[in-house]
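Quick look at the format.
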Amino acid sequence: MNSILLIGRVLFAFIFVTSGLSHLAKVDAMAGYAKFKKVPAAKFSVLVSGALMALGGLSIILGVYADLGALVIAILLFVMALKMHDFWTQTDAQAKQTEMISFFKNISMAGGALIIFAIAATEGSDYGWTLTDSLWQLAK
């Protein structure tokens, strides 16, 4: 079962590592879109979110304080869903649908990250091979 849990963590978190690296590699393009979405300090926000996504994803994959990494990813996804995928402000039907899909993808992945957080942060839980113990040891 440990192998399956590790594979699940890798499959879940790989998108955050690649997206985070993409944010860092394409800062100007990403900052342009962030400006369009009225993100304050767009370039800085892209750099910070890219670093947090990449590090959070690696944390989950490697099991280095995976509880903290999962919590960071969950918070990022929730904030990004609200700020970047504001389907409720769209007037064009196609844009509204696209933003709604992205919004709910982010929200559902935030839910998955919270599940990983809950499992990793629970005292005595086994969620596959890890490099470190969890940061938190919450009672069952």
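Next, a different chain entirely:
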Amino acid sequence: MKTHIFPIRVYYEDTDMAGIVYYANYLRYIERARSDWVRTLGIDQNRMRERDGVVFAVRRVEADYLMPAKFDDELEVRTVTRAVTGARLVMGQEVWRGATRLFQAEVTIVCLGESGHPARLPANIRLLLH
């Protein structure tokens, strides 16, 4: 599967007193990128919840902060699919400023049913993710 690119601009509210992006905001950036990626695949998460009774949830994030992003930087979040199983999706995500990689994460996504217990990914969604 090809890499999904999502542009982000660093706003003042994203930074600390030194003008550096607050570490937790990288998680917000990659979440936005994953949501946009799912939408570009044609997956309607509201419909998935209503029709299939399942939602996506982050199970695990392994993150490395490599270089700081700063106020007014133009960044891009690059997202790739690493693995898809019956109930789990592993994504690789990186935040770049030009040719410099600033952040990288491996994110494990699971499906949860209405009870909050793990559920299988709907077959039509698994097909879109391969």
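The longest helix spans residues 24-40.

See the schema section for token definitions.
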